Structure formats: structure tokens, C-alpha cells
Amino acid sequence: MNPPPATDPLLTDPPSGGPLEPERLADLAAASRILAAQGVVDAFGHVSMRHPTAPDRYLMARSLAPALVEPQDILEYDLDSRPCSPAGRKSFLERFIHGELYKARPDVMAVVHSHSPSVVPFGLVRLRLQAMFHNAAFLADGVPVFDIRDRFGATDLLVSDGPKGQALAQTLGLRQVALMRAHGSVAVGPSLEVAVFRAVYTEVNARIQHWAHALAAGEPLAALDADEGERADVVNQGAGMRAWDLWRAQARAANGW
Amino acid sequence: MNPPPATDPLLTDPPSGGPLEPERLADLAAASRILAAQGVVDAFGHVSMRHPTAPDRYLMARSLAPALVEPQDILEYDLDSRPCSPAGRKSFLERFIHGELYKARPDVMAVVHSHSPSVVPFGLVRLRLQAMFHNAAFLADGVPVFDIRDRFGATDLLVSDGPKGQALAQTLGLRQVALMRAHGSVAVGPSLEVAVFRAVYTEVNARIQHWAHALAAGEPLAALDADEGERADVVNQGAGMRAWDLWRAQARAANGW
Amino acid sequence: MNPPPATDPLLTDPPSGGPLEPERLADLAAASRILAAQGVVDAFGHVSMRHPTAPDRYLMARSLAPALVEPQDILEYDLDSRPCSPAGRKSFLERFIHGELYKARPDVMAVVHSHSPSVVPFGLVRLRLQAMFHNAAFLADGVPVFDIRDRFGATDLLVSDGPKGQALAQTLGLRQVALMRAHGSVAVGPSLEVAVFRAVYTEVNARIQHWAHALAAGEPLAALDADEGERADVVNQGAGMRAWDLWRAQARAANGW
Amino acid sequence: MNPPPATDPLLTDPPSGGPLEPERLADLAAASRILAAQGVVDAFGHVSMRHPTAPDRYLMARSLAPALVEPQDILEYDLDSRPCSPAGRKSFLERFIHGELYKARPDVMAVVHSHSPSVVPFGLVRLRLQAMFHNAAFLADGVPVFDIRDRFGATDLLVSDGPKGQALAQTLGLRQVALMRAHGSVAVGPSLEVAVFRAVYTEVNARIQHWAHALAAGEPLAALDADEGERADVVNQGAGMRAWDLWRAQARAANGW
Predict the structure, then answer these.
(1) pLDDT at C208 over 90
(2) Taking Cα atoms as reference points, which of D59, D68, D150 lies closest to residue D109?
(3) In chain A, what residues touch D181 (CB-CB under 8 Å)?
(4) Which of A237, B83, B162, C20 has the most CB atoms lying inside 10 A of its own CB?
(5) Full-model pTM
(6) How far apart are the two ends of chain C, measured CA to CA in Å?
(7) Is C33 left (phi over 0), alpha (psi -120 to 50) or beta?
(8) What's the total number of domains in chain B?
(9) Is residue B11, in this structure, part of any structural domain at all?
(10) For residue C152, what are the domain limits?
(11) Is B38 part of the contact surface with chain A (CB cutoff 8 Å)?
(12) For A2-51, how does the pLDDT look when each residue is reduced to its tens digit (9 = 90+)?
């Protein structure tokens, strides 16, 4: 596939940020399958990581159900979400979620987008998701809800271009998780492992909050406060690797890579 | 099995609409197993497709639990739901759901009937099922409830003849999903793949609405409106194939066909 | 193991009602594993069948987790729940549930006792279990609750002797399912296959009623009435075999018998 | 790894209480995997047992996801939670839960700490966990909630030193289960098998209470009273071995030990 003459940047595939270690590609593909195994994604949803040595590039699978992703399905994108070497492979319509979050948040090294079923309800009501236990400490500084309708009116709900991705990034601000009304959520982290951990425990936390809310009879829940959340999140970023190690081992056993 | 002399059409097996490609029969058998794997059907429920080249015929398994269906279990029916070549094989009592929906809705190419446990409750209460997220956009123009009691009084609840099937088709109207009081639901689509997608996401959506309702404290949910639903449904019919591709691959891995 | 001289019937093992076909023993062992696979029993619970040719005998596994039962674990009992040939094998403490129900109900050919988690709540509250859909038609004539405390004061909750079994049988009356407060439930049927079907769909129905109740905002549910229940139950006893055929095939695939 | 000169007890590894039978180490490793298989622990949580012949020592896996624990991962600790022979292996931050409970409760021979998702909500609300059925009789004398904030202010929620473990032990008192606000719970028992049983049925009971509470419309639940609880708990400690036998067999089949 020969690129056209490089006159219009929109017509030229952006250059790669450089080669990646095969083990990191395998980790990213495994992350897709881990999210499927944990019930965070079904046939839809995606996870990306920023290029380890080229911060203006990110890596994400071609348009494919997460449980089917193999290392060779991973494409490289620039932060405008143009694929570097598509070679005919189809990209996710919503890759702009990823590109725009990497632009807006230099600290973010990985992004998960999902429609996990316990989380979606919290985007449809006034009540907010709170941190129910220490594993979900990253939620303790608040979980905003992005309503695409506010800026873009009636849409197909998808974050399918740069401006919609930028609006979502504004709603997220400096937080780790944002919900998307009638759609799903995003979770970000300083590493692939932490972003996956946060996506999983956002879902677990939502299930816990459903039950807790039903028991509370309208009284406030004894959730983590912001101070407890900050302290517990520090520990989680270390101890959370125990979860990654388990999930990665399970993925390796299932897939051989 | 020699057919009787062709004097009474009710005594003669209707002729076939013509042969089908084996791959399509395998897809239909796989659809049964997909619906079982996704928790939409248990030992009961059925899926059919209109004959691709003979619109007055449809295809459906003999009376058998969906998880056990093989391609050779599939029978052909006319739209009065008479089997073309039963050869002693038993038909589902409720095949009239399928035949009458194909009569009433020329756009419908596939039908799923199920009793999925999250959906049944919405047929027992005044509250209506709504589209909670973009994947369930096909619900955004409303989900009617068919109460067999209204027209037929006390029954065994089954749609076991033409008139009951016609009454159900009237309740469905131009919509994609109808609930059946104290029984289950039907989902239809312009292809087998889309009908299966809709049956699965009707169940997922119901689970989400249960949770959302419990959190809403009586306030309306920020569900998809009809305009959003129409736009998102267009995208789903394309992107939804990602789900079919996943489920079909899983069925193929499990069954070898 | 030589029996003692037959002077005191309580000291003599009762004689067998005669040999059984190996296939029926395999079916009964499979029923145990089916109930475990369907989530009706965990490590506890048991299923029995009346002896096909000796109505004053019944068959049930020795004290063992249902998922581990093999055909050779099955013992024969008289209706006072004395084992015919224990040969050192331990009996379930609660076998009197079975013996006393067979005494009180000549129509009953099989009994399931379980603590399935969705059903237990309905034994702890004033609200009664109702038939939410046609598969659970056998619940439409009411589901009584047995509170052992009423007749026996503070106990360990177990139906561990004849009088307690008789009291439970009185509560059940002519119905098909009775709940046991703070304990579990029993389901009976005119065949092993129907009793297993009823135990499974009591659990499924309970899950549906939990959701339906939460949506109903205090209004009555559009459950099956007694007339609908009677009509649907007739069909279920035939069509329900489709479920048994599926579950038996799955058990055969897993166990080889 | 040569130990430093034994001048400061804090710098010297405590001596072992003596060798263990390999079968008991395998049981303890199996207990980890059983708790994972039963959904009581995910990547986090831990189980320990007191040394059978040295009551001032206990045994627990190194810091590792429970589903990955092998017999050789088990370390020995003194009751101040110092490892006897760490050999570079990392200990759980929260081992002080275990050490301090063994100090405070000579009757306790095993401890489980978990964050099982149905239980956490009861640590966040005023409503208390009650015994919903006979299998959970060990809850009938009450389930206290430990709020680390009461004594230690804002923390990372972890019981990561002796004083925090002692405070938890005071909250537990003579009971069998205590919840930990915004964190999880502990269950104890007179044997490994009983502690595992209690951890599993605390989770099952919590699920049942969620449903029962929703059905009760504010009326009290017909839970076990203290007298019933005491009687049923005696039976459970014997009959509960049926559960351990099942779970141990399943773990053996999966792991080969």
C-alpha cells in the first residue's frame, strides 16, 4: 500500500514512533482478553497504551472483539487517531476517545473504554458513583458524567471524532474515571496495568454500590472520603500488580502468549 | 413417508422453497447455541430465519433444546407454520410466533423467541423497558407488552396457533421487540445476525434498567430518546457484526461447524 | 454385615423393595449433578425418587455433596426413612423430609430438597412466591411457608425426624412446592424429571420475582392466575422433558453415565 | 541468607514452630484456591491457619493472588507476624489481621480475610448482617463492623500493623465474623475447614439478605434467633465437612494436590 505524495498531512499515514518490544504488544493484547474475562467488555470496548518511547503515538487493536485480539492485531496511531500503517485494517470508530485523552493528560499512559453493565446505570441517574472500598480508591475524588447531548445534541452516542473526544477529556479533567451517559465509561492510568485494574474495579465497585444503596434507606454510605482515597490509591498502585500478575498468568495459560 | 393425495392442503406437506447453502444452516444452528451461551435461552426458546430465496418459507430447528441443535435438526416451514418435510420430527408448539411475524412483517428476516430472566419482569409490571445504552438503540421507539389474556382469556400462555401469532404480530407492529406477559419476548431483525444481536442486548439492557431503576428514586432515567435511538441503531447494524463474529467464532470452536 | 435377629423392627434393616434398572439409578445420580449444575444445590441438598415397583420404598444418595454422587452411592429406604442396606454408609440427617412426603402424597414419585439462594428470601418475609411465567405454572396454586418454630420451638432448623417431616407434609398439602423458613424448600413431582424441573424453575422464578417486585412500586404483579397455571402445567409436564433431555445429555457428557 | 547476630529480636527471624505434614500445607494452599473458586476472594484476600503443634506460630502464603498459591508458597509467622524464614519472599501487608486474632482468640485455629462483593455493602450502612438460613448460623450472635477511622483517623484502610490488628480483634470479640468498613471482612473458626465454610456462607448469606431486605418492605426478617443459631451451628460444624470434602475434591482435580 503506497502512501500518496506527502502534500496533505490528512492524506499521508503518520510515521511510526518506533518499534515496540514484542512482550509489550503481548501485554496489550492480553489486556483486551483480561477485560473480556473479567466481564468489563463484551464484544465491544477497547484498551490502548501510549507508545513507551514516543509520547505522541498510541497503540490499540484494529476493530475486533476484545476476546479475539492477538498481538498482530495492534495498530499504531498518532494523537489525532490516524493509523500509522493501517494496511487495510479497520480502526475502531471511537479511537478518538484514546487520542484526545492522551493529548489532554500527559500523565496518562493507558486508556480503557467499556460498557460494563453495572456501571452504565450510574450514567443514567442523578446519584454518583462513589468509592465503596479501598480497591476502588481511585474513584474517591469523584466520577463525572459526560452527556454528549449537552454539546452535540442528538447523536449516535459515539465519540467518533476529535471534538467529541476533547469534550470527553474536559469532563474527565484530572480524574481517573468518567461515565458516559447512555453509553459506558473510560478509565485511565499511569500504566497499562493500573488502567486495567481501574476498569475492573470500577465495575466491581458499581456492583457493590448497587447493593449498598439498596440497604441504605436513603442515608449516606460510609464510602471512602477523599483523604482515605488518596492514601489507599498509593498502596493499590503497588499491590494492584498482584491482580495483574494473576490475570496475565491466566491469559498466558489460555493463549500461550 | 408418502404424502397423502393432494386434495386437502392441510393434509399435504407444503413443498420446499428450494435448497439452502450448508453454511447458512450452520449459522442458524450456531445462532441457537449462541443464544444459549449468552443466557438468552435455557432449555426453551427458538430462533428462525426466513428462507433467503423463498420469502414464503422459514427455517427453524425441530423441537429441541437450543444448546443441542445441529444443522441437520433444521426444518423448513411455510408461513402457516406447516413443516415441508417433517419426516417424523416434532415441531415447536409455538412456531406460529415465527410464521405469523414473517407474514405481517416483510422486512423481518429472522425471529428470536425467548424467556430470558431479566426481561420477563418487564412484562409483569406497568413500567416499560427503555433503551439504556446505545447497543440497545433498537428499543428506543418503545417496547409493547402482549397479554394473551386480553383476546384469548385463560390459556396455557403459549402462542400455539395462527390467531394467537397474529395477535402478537399486531402488538409488535413495526417495532423490533415485544414482551409477552408472564411468558417471554420476541425480537426481530433484517438478518439473522441482527435478530440475535437484538435478543442478546434486550436481555443486557433489561439488567441495566433493573439497576438504573433502583438508583433513580422515581426520577426519569436519562435513556436514549427516539432520535438518538434511530441514529445509534444504524451504526449498530454495522458494528454489531463484531459481536456476531465473536459469538460465531466461539460456537465454531465449541462445535466444529 | 449380618442383620440382628428380627425381633425389634427398629433394630432390623428393612428388606429391599426389589432391584432397579441401572439406568434409573444413573438417572437419579444424574439428577443430583443436574441440580448442582443448575445452581439449585451447592454442597447441600438432596433428591430422591420413590421405588418404581415398591411404593413403600424410596431411593436417595448417602450423605454426600450432590455434585459428587455416583450411581453406587444410592441407598434404599423404607418410608420411615430406615436404610435397607446401609453397609456402614451414612444417611442424610434430613431424609425424613422424603419419607414423610412419600407417605402423605401417593401421587408424588420424586422429591427435591434445596437451599437455593433466590428462594430462601421468600421464606423470611410476608410476601409470597407467585408464578411469574408459564414455566413456573406449578407455583400458581400457592406456595406455603413451613416455620419449624411453630410446632417445635427453637431447633437446629433441620427436619431430622418423622414428626418434623409430617409437619412439613401438612404444610405442603396438595401443592408442589413449600418453602421452609430460614432454611430452604421442597419441590415434588409425579416423576423424577418433573420434580427436577420444578426445583430448577422455582429458583428461576424466584429470581424473576425479585426483579419484578422491585419494578412494581407496590402494585400487584401480572402473575399467572390459578386457571392459567393449571393449563400451563399440563403442557410443561410434556414440554419440560426438553429440559430434562438437555440436562441429562450434559450430565452424560460430563460423567460418562 | 545468613541471619544477622541475634542481638535485636526485631532483626532476627523468629524460629520455626516445627515441621508440618505436607498434607496440611496442601490443604492450606487448597483453601486459598477454594476461596477463589467460590468467589470469596479475587486477586486479593488471604487465609491462614495456626500451627497445629506450635500455637504461637501461624502459616500463610507469601503475597500472591489466592488462585495462584502452591504449597511451597506458604510461610510461617510468629504472632507478631514476623516471618520465620522469608528467604526473600514478600509477605502480605495485612498479615497483622491474622497474628493479632490468633493472639486474642486461643480458640481460633484459622482466619480468612476477604473483600467479597456481597458482604462489603453491609459495612457501609447502618443495617446489620443477620443469619438468613441455618448454614449461616454462625452469624446469629451478631456481626460487628470495624471502622478503622474511629481509632486511626484517615488511613489507607489497611490493617497493616499490630495496633490496627488489635483494634480489629477487639471489635470481633468472641464472634466468628466481623466486617471492616469500606474494606471487607474476617471470618474465624476452630479449624481450617470451618473458617473456610464460614467465609463462603458469609458471602452466600449476604446475597440472600440483599434479596430478603428488598422484599421485606421494612418489616423485620424471620432470621435465625440466637438460640436457633447456637443449635444449628453445632450441626454445621459436622455436616459442613460435606462442603469441604466437595471443595477439596474439586481443588485436587484441578491442581493435582
Answers:
(1) yes
(2) D59
(3) 222
(4) C20
(5) 0.95
(6) 29
(7) alpha
(8) 1
(9) no
(10) 17-255
(11) no
(12) 444 445 556 689 999 999 999 999 999 999 999 999 999 999 999 999 99
